[in-house]
Amino acid sequence: MIRHGQSEGNLHKIVQGHANFPLSNLGKKQALLVGEAFANVNLDALYSSDLDRAIKTAEAIKEHHPHLTLNTWPVLREVGLGPLEGQPREDVLKIYPFLKHKSILTSGIPGTEQLHEITNRCKITVDYLLSHHKNDTVAIVAHGGFISILIMYLIAKEHWPNVERPFMIGNTGVTKVTIDRQGVLKVHYVNDTSHLEDKTNTPFHDTVEK
């Protein structure tokens, strides 16, 4: 699983969710670097969220795997943040100060994607990939919030909202997960950004994942 490169929304600290922000100039560079990192990885399938920041990152990976079809899939979108999308994070925190201590992804604010809806998307994602790619190596390009929740869902299933997230996913951070034929899950690593080191001169983690 790969998070998209830095977007204009990340750069300007705008809440994104389903809002379709493009990659920033730095994000385009990050995408090229993660694409190079996957050049020698044997991939059987490539999926991306249908939002531009994810598609452009996935295209950089596909450059090194021209035989693959890039499958865009709305199920992989970031958590929907409804009325908060497109607003500066600073303004959102003024309106909803409790978000200083609670994840915006699971805030329950009316109009945002609710927990049962997020859980359903995780289930659809996992069930589909296990049924269609049982023995395949699949690259999924998505979003920091959704990838984080998907990892927690893989570990705790529908109980994921009770799991305290011990990690962040930086721009183009790579997470490797395997599920064997017996259904045993193994998380090999989370948020590997070594492909960016000493090349982009930027912090790997954004304060706003969305």
Automatic annotation (TrEMBL):
InterPro entries in the record: His_Pase_superF_clade-1, His_PPase_superfam, PG/BPGM_mutase_AS, Phosphoglycerate_Mutase
Q: Name one GO cellular component term.
A: cytosol
Name the SMART domains on file. PGAM (SM00855)
The keyword Hydrolase appears for this protein: yes
> Could you provide one GO biological process annotation from this protein's UniProt record?
regulation of pentose-phosphate shunt
The UniProt keyword set, sorted, is: Hydrolase
The record's active-site residues are H4 (tele-phosphohistidine intermediate), E78 (proton donor/acceptor)
Q: Which residues form a coiled coil?
A: none
Q: Which GO terms describe its molecular function?
A: fructose-2,6-bisphosphate 2-phosphatase activity
Keyword Metal-binding in record: no
Q: Which Gene3D superfamilies match?
A: Phosphoglycerate mutase-like
Task: Indicate which residues the UniProt annotation says bind substrate.
Answer: R3, H4, G5, Q6, S7, E8, G9, N10, R53
List where the protein spans the membrane.
none
What PANTHER family does the record point to? FRUCTOSE-2,6-BISPHOSPHATASE TIGAR (PTHR46517:SF1)
Q: What is this protein called?
A: Phosphoglycerate mutase
Q: Which organism is it from?
A: Evansella cellulosilytica (strain ATCC 21833 / DSM 2522 / FERM P-1141 / JCM 9156 / N-4)
